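User: Sequence for (+)-neomenthol dehydrogenase below. Tokens please.
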Amino acid sequence: MTYSKALVLITGANQGIGFATARQLASSDKFHVLVGARTASKAEAAVQQLQSDAVDKSALTPITIDVTDDASIAAAAQAVSEQFGHLDILINNAGIGQVPDAPVREQYRQIFDVNVFGVAVVINALLPLLQASEYTDRRIVNVTSGLGQISMAGKKDYAFNARAWFAPDYRSSKAALNMITAAFSLKLADEKIAVIAAAPGFCRTNFTGGQGKKEARDGASVIVRAATEESPEELSGTFIADEGFGLGW
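Assistant: Structure tokens for (+)-neomenthol dehydrogenase:
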């Protein structure tokens, strides 16, 4: 089959900001969205929900991808390769914020496994498919957080500093993700694959226990902008957010 729409894969797209991102892309009629989730049933259920809003209901494909499982990631890459032969845009959205009631080492291990190691392995597995794409605006978007900015954590009298929001495990995972973004933005520059960090902000989702200043759709719009709008050359290697933190990495 021939696919004329840009092909986008989103990890963790079955709920929250990932789901809202998939909804916005699917409703634009410009993208074929690979809806990633840890299990086939979750991915398929998300696609069924999204099809009510999609302009082209056939432009949604469920894909099983558990970012903590290398075999799952490899199988997802193989499935994309066999069905499509390429990938145009990758959005690394899957993430976790806390591991309640676990020993400290286990808290860090699980959070880094998803937020850092998972992203690194997914990029490594899917990069050949991005390199195989003839799309003129290939991008990798890593969903980060302002909490990962060292300058924000240490800024006195700031609402989201580390005194108000301690979370050193989550903060450090997103700081590591920002470094992955910066490094890959330079590594892939000559291949014209933009690598961008996008911070959706404090959104009301299950991830935040329903707390936040924004709706999931508002946070998703930041990710969509990073994935599809503005100049990829200018955005690559940068951190974008509606809040305009301006505090550096």
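The chain has a mean pLDDT of 91.
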